Every structure is written in structure tokens, then in C-alpha cells.
Inverse folding.
């Protein structure tokens, strides 16, 4: 009986349509998430559907198989609908139906992912969006019909800058990009998809674990001896005091790191770019020097007495721990890696500073959590038996390490002609000082053995650094505007975006680009190095905008047609890099 009734209603609607009854009860308006799209990439589509009052359309999954579902389609050769997200329908009981029906009413949003063909050429294309539906009111149903909207899609080459648009529309749709094989933003898509698909708690847990993982990056290694050195120098501290100092250190790092992350994400600048501001570098150098002086007994961190009284007897070192944490946040900033690049991209896309601050704060808490444990562990050093003169000797060694870190951050400001020799020369000075001039605690046999071994180790490293070596590497040429041809007779183009302050960039040079297999395979490519060291300059800013560089290291692999086939962020070993480039244009 129900089927018969619905059939009669449909036939009645068809008859009305033939006699000229207008079916304009549903209107649609379509939106894209980017102003341009790349070939072989994805773009989000949003369709705002307005259904006239007193009318409804069936949901995309009606309860009965004889009902006509609402369905979104696109009609074009170069675009493919890969995922469609329909809104949650409502159940309503109508006069013509014995049971409730699953329908849409009022204003709804339908979202979809559109994949662009890798064969598509740059230019403008018409994208016809069609919504198939059947409209009904409480008394009758019209014949199944469709409504269309036409969008202009601008397909850009891989060197063009793409901007996100219509964010207010896409906030109404729970839709995430997929991880396209061979795409240029796989890591970013994974981060975005994970955060989009998780609740706030799970998302923050994921970010916290990512922060913990950042401790495996080389930029963070120097923080370990610095942390142990600073907290180990608080010789009068109890375990409770050291825990509180470590907590303040962690909070200081989290505050700095989250502020840097949010500002960087919202402005789109290279993460870690603050390290190219001369005043920032000099400030960091000064802080390391000030911290080193405390290791030599020149002063001790202590709050003003009036503050101490108001704080109920707060002890020395608390302010210093927080202040040092603020500095360490900047030191850790260059080690972005794929995870933080993805997080930066996600925060920038959301455009929500509160969410950005929360995510980066939790990320920095994960990054700094091990150093809370190191702060407490450093107390065990002070609890070794027969503490005395040898402890001052340990503090002096840590003071020398802090000065070495100050020199390291000063290197980008020094002339290239001798900057490579400054740190090795300082290491020679430390070794000779500790071996022949520093007499403190030489009567303690264990400490004397440690000091001699430590001195010989850094002396050997310094001498090795002075020895000139023949470096086998990819035949890089300096990148300049206009040096990359639109089409090449080779396999393609490799562009390595690097900075002098970027430790993972140096790892790529030493371990990846020096490999014989990589060198041989790279001969089939044009190979360029793009210097992003002075990231605040106009030239680097233009380069960053042109290639959408969020952080360094970034390595772009372009095919012979000039299309981006792979974007590498962070360190990859030689075998992985070789596999990537040998498959290009196969």
C-alpha cells in the first residue's frame, strides 16, 4: 500500500511538472576550499542547500529502497569525487507515510573531496555541481529532478601560491583531506586528518606524544647537557625544589614554543625564522653567557628579597629556571620536522589563535616533559658521596658547555671565511685549559680521570674538525630566479631548501646527499640549493611564498614537466631518498 501511494504521488508530481508547475523549491550554492588547485591534488567542495519552507527532500540514505535519495555529483573529465559527506538527516512523520521518513529540511551543507587529474594542464575549468533530489511536502511529492551550480576552478602550476578560502563555510562540514599517494603534502594531510577525526582530548594526546617524539631530533640533543648542567649546579636544592624548578623550566619552554608556533602559523613565516633576527641571536648568546657565569660562581639566580617575602619564602633558582625555559623554547624551534610542519599548516588553516595556542602549548609540554625528569635526576649527581671541591669542577665544565652553545648560535653572524674554525678552536682551548690549567678537584681520582677523558675526547673532535676532507656530494648549484626550465630533458629538478642554523639540513648533507647511489641518481636531475638562512629578507620571503615552504629542511622533487611529485620535510636516509628519486618519471 505504501509503495502504491508513493508511486501515485510521484506520477502526480510528474504530471504537475509537465503542465509547467515550477520545481524551484531547492537552491544550491557551491564553494571551494582553495582559490587554486594543483594537478594530482585534492580540494574540498562545499554545497549549501536551501530547501523552501514546508518542503523537504529525502536524505542520501532513505529508509525505504523505493524512495529517491538525494545525491551530489560533478560532471567533468578532469575531476573526480572521492568522498562525500552528507549532513545528519531528521526523522519526520508525514500524512502520506505510515512510518517516519529520513529527510533534509531548511538549510544544510554537503561536503566532498575532489581529486584533480595529474594530466590536467594549468588553466580555468568549469565544474558543474549537480544535486539530484525529490521534493515533497506534507501532502504530495514532485517528480525527481536536479539542480545545478557552476564553479570556475583555477588549476595552477606547482610554483604558484595557493590560498585557503571560504573557511567560514567549511567549518560547517566535518571533512578532512585524505593522504594522496604521491601527493606533496602527505604528512600535513595525516596530521590534519588525525586532528579532524579525533575529539579534543585525543587530539591533544596525539600532539603531546608528538612533542615527546621531537626529543629524538638533533636540535634537542644540546639541551640535555645544558639542563643537567644548570640544575646540577643548584647544589643546595632538594628533590622537591628541583622538581618545582623543572616544572617552571617546562612551563617557560611551553610558553615560548606555543607563542612562536601560533605567530608563525598565523603569519606563514618559516618556523624558526626568529633565529635569523640579529637581535634575537645576540639575546640568546647573551643568555647563554649569563647562565655560564653562574656555573663559575660569579652569581646565583635569586629573586629580590621583597619578592621572596611576598612569595612566602621562595628560594633561589626558580626565576632562573623559568627564564632558561623561555630560552630553550627558541633553541628547540628549528627542529620542526614533518610533524610540526603539519601542525603549523593545520593551525594556519583553522585560523583560530586559541586552538593554535592550546595545541602548541601541549606540544611543548610533551617536548619539555623529559627535562622535568632530567631536573630531578640532576639532583642525584649532587647526592653522590663526598660532595665537595669536585662539584665546582663539574659546574665549570658545564659552564664551558654553555659558552660553547653561545658560540654555536653566534656562528651565522660571523664571516664564512673563518666561522667554521671558531668552535673547534674553542674546543681546543677548553681541552688545554682543563688538562693543564684547571687544578680544581684534581685530588679526587675519579673526577680527575673523567676530566682527562673528557678533555681528550673534545680535543680529538676539534683536531678532526680542522682536518680538511674531500666531500662527496650531489652537484648542487645555487638557486636563483629563472634558473629552473619549464620543461627538462632530464628526469626533473631537485631543490634543497636549507638554512645554516638547521641541524637536520646538515644531516642531509652528511648522511644522505653524500651517498654514492644518491649522487649517481641525482645526475639525471637539475639540482639546486635554495638558501633560507636569512629568512627575514625579501628574497627568501618571495621564495617561501612561491614554493609554500613552511620550514626547513624541505626538498622538492619536480618531474620533467615541472610538476611537483614529492615534498620531503625533515631528514630522510640515503636509501629512502634514492628510492624516491629513482621512481620519478618511470
Amino acid at each position: 500500500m505504501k509503495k502504491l501511494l508513493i508511486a501515485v504521488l510521484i506520477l502526480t508530481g510528474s504530471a504537475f511538472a509537465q503542465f509547467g508547475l515550477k520545481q524551484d523549491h531547492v537552491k544550491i550554492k557551491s564553494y571551494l576550499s582553495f582559490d587554486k588547485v594543483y594537478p594530482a591534488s585534492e580540494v574540498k567542495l562545499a554545497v549549501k542547500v536551501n530547501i523552501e519552507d514546508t518542503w523537504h527532500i529525502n536524505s542520501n540514505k532513505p529508509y525505504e529502497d523505493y524512495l529517491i535519495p538525494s545525491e551530489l555529483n560533478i560532471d567533468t573529465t578532469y575531476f573526480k569525487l572521492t568522498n562525500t559527506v552528507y549532513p545528519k538527516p531528521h526523522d519526520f512523520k508525514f500524512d502520506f507515510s505510515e512510518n517516519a521518513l529520513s529527510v533534509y529540511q531548511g538549510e544544510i551543507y554537503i561536503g566532498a573531496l575532489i581529486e584533480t587529474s595529474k594530466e590536467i594542464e594549468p588553466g580555468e575549468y568549469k565544474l558543474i555541481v549537480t544535486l539530484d533530489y525529490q521534493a515533497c511536502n506534507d501532502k504530495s511529492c514532485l517528480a525527481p529532478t536536479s539542480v545545478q551550480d557552476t564553479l570556475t576552478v583555477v588549476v595552477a602550476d606547482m610554483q604558484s601560491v595557493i590560498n585557503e578560502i571560504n573557511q567560514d563555510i567549511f567549518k560547517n562540514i566535518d571533512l578532512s583531506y585524505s593522504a594522496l599517494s604521491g601527493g606533496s603534502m602527505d604528512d600535513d594531510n595525516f596530521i590534519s586528518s588525525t586532528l579532524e577525526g579525533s575529539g579534543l582530548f585525543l587530539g591533544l594526546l596525539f600532539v603531546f606524544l608528538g612533542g615527546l617524539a621531537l626529543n629524538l631530533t638533533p636540535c634537542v640533543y644540546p639541551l640535555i647537557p645544558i639542563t643537567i648542567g644548570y640544575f646540577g649546579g643548584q647544589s643546595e636544592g632538594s628533590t622537591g625544589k628541583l622538581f618545582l624548578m623543572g616544572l617552571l623550566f617546562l612551563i617557560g619552554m611551553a610558553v615560548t614554543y606555543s607563542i612562536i608556533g601560533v605567530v608563525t602559523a598565523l603569519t606563514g613565516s618559516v618556523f624558526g625564522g626568529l633565529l635569523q633576527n640579529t637581535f634575537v641571536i645576540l639575546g640568546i648568546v647573551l643568555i647563554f653567557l649569563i647562565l655560564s657565569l653562574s656555573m663559575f660562581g660569579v652569581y646565583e639566580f635569586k629573586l629580590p628579597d621583597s619578592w621572596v617575602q611576598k612569595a612566602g619564602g621562595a628560594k633561589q633558582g626558580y626565576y632562573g629556571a623559568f627564564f632558561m625555559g623561555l630560552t630553550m623554547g627558541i633553541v628547540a624551534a628549528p627542529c620542526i620536522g614533518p610533524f610540526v610542519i603539519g601542525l603549523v599548516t593545520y593551525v594556519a588553516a583553522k585560523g583560530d589563535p586559541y586552538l593554535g595556542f592550546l595545541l602548541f602549548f601541549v606540544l611543548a609540554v610533551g617536548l619539555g616533559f623529559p627535562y622535568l625528569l632530567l631536573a630531578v635526576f640532576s639532583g642525584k649527581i649532587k647526592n653522590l658521596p663526598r660532595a665537595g671541591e669536585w662539584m665546582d669542577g663539574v659546574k665549570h665544565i658545564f659552564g664551558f658547555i654553555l659558552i660553547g652553545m653561545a658560540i654555536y648560535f653566534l656562528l651565522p653572524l660571523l664571516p664564512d671565511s673563518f666561522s667554521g674554525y671558531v668552535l673547534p678552536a674553542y674546543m681546543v682551548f677548553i681541552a688545554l685549559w682543563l688538562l693543564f690549567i684547571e687544578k680544581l678537584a684534581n685530588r679526587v681520582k675519579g673526577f680527575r680521570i673523567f676530566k682527562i677523558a673528557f678533555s681528550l675526547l673534545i680535543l680529538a673532535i676539534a683536531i678532526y674538525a680542522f682536518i680538511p676532507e674531500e666531500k662527496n656530494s650531489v652537484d648542487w648549484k645555487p638557486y636563483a630566479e629563472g634558473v629552473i626550465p619549464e620543461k627538462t630533458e632530464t628526469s626533473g629538478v631537485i631543490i634543497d631548501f636549507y638554512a645554516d642554523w638547521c641541524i637536520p639540513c646538515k644531516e642531509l648533507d652528511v648522511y644522505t646527499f653524500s651517498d654514492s647511489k644518491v649522487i649517481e641518481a641525482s645526475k639525471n636531475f637539475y639540482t639546486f640549493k635554495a638558501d633560507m638562512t636569512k629568512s627575514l629578507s625579501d628574497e627568501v620571503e618571495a621564495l617561501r611564498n612561491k614554493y609554500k615552504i613552511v620550514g626547513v629542511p624541505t626538498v622538492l622533487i619536480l618531474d620533467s614537466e615541472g610538476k611537483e611529485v614529492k615534498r620531503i620535510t625533515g631528514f630522510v636516509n640515503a636509501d629512502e631518498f634514492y628510492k624516491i628519486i629513482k621512481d620519478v618519471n618511470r
